[in-house]
Amino acid sequence: MIRALRSLRLARLNRHEVAGSLGDMGTFLPLLVGMAAQNGLDFSASLFFAGLFNILTGVLFAIPMAVQPMKAIATVALTSGLPVPQILAAGITVSAIILLLGLTGLIDWLNRAIPKSVVRGLQLALGLSLLMKGLQMVTGTHAWIAPDSYATAAVSALVVLALFFSTRVPSALVLFGAGVLLATWKNPGVLNLIHLDWSFPAWTPLAWADFVDAFPRAALPQIPLTLLNSVIAVCALSAQLFPGSAATPRRVSISVGLMNLVAGWFGGMPMCHGAGGLAGQYRFGARTNGSILFLGCAKMFVAVLFGASLMALCRAFPASVLGVMLAFSGIELALVTRDQTGRTEAFIMLLTAGACLGLDSVALGFVLGLVLAWCLRLESFTVERERLVPASDAVPGDAAHAPVNTSTTATSRRPASST
After folding, report:
1. pTM
2. For labeling, which of 3, 37, 176, 228 is most exposed (least CB within 10 Å)?
3. CB under 8 Å to 207, separation ≥6 — which residues?
4. pLDDT tens digits for range 190-228
């Protein structure tokens, strides 16, 4: 309670905080609208819980901690046509596991056990899958010039590129507004379907089979991403941006764990925190939790005011505009892998990504990448151990156990000009 009161006292609300609250729309809107339009996810319930957890996050943390969709689950849902019950079940499963890891303190051990290169391979595969899905949606319009066509997609892409470096206007918000206008232009009847409709999320029953089917397809690949991006990376970034108010892995993991254990049973999309969202909101001007509190209130207000009538707008949203939004979201997700510059790390990342895409199974790709990374770690440990075996321990005449003297190799004796 004392921590919450302290966080609220630190909250500020000005034009910079309002602008910063929109910094995460580039991830939030495309995935939410995409799952609502393609999979039938309840847009109103998801928006309501996203707003609710924005507010709770703003109370618990004194920094602009973002609330984002779980990207692995969202990508698998969009590219594989995952039914809504399995989307919700995957989110609940991931949250239960993350909560358990946070409460027991095992989250730090698991973070060390899963190599970063494997997680980056998952992100690369998911980003490319989302990019390809977006392009397929654009080509699926089969029209050159129309409200929903190749030309519309080209203009949308130019808008994203024009606002790529903007710290004032989020391109996703502009495209969302343009998509709404095009949807009403193409189908004027949509406006009659959008009306004041006071409603709140309703209980969504889930079967055990939904959890069984969702675990290997969506939950398993999401767990390492949540560990790295939603817990470890976001804590590290918060310590860098806000040294006096840094988040801790334990508190963040508990926060992520509790989100979907509640929202998942009422139709809310799987959500978590994220380093990308925190960076985006900071880039747009957010410096306190005031931006998150403002954004949460706005989301809940729209969700409660218009309710289920918002689904009609999602179904009429132009595929060309949504495709561009998803494509650029996929590129942003894939870009985080550029930190894998070492040969071994890049090899593991590319094999993991290739296995995910080639075998059409993110879970299987993750397992193969993990096995490869562990094998290379074991091989590296064995080679290093053999290099350090003392000469007295070596078997006489056994060249395999002879110590390596790098200072007397032929290469080291060559003059510098000959290399």
Report:
1. 0.78
2. 3
3. 85
4. 777 766 666 778 888 899 999 999 999 899 889 888 887
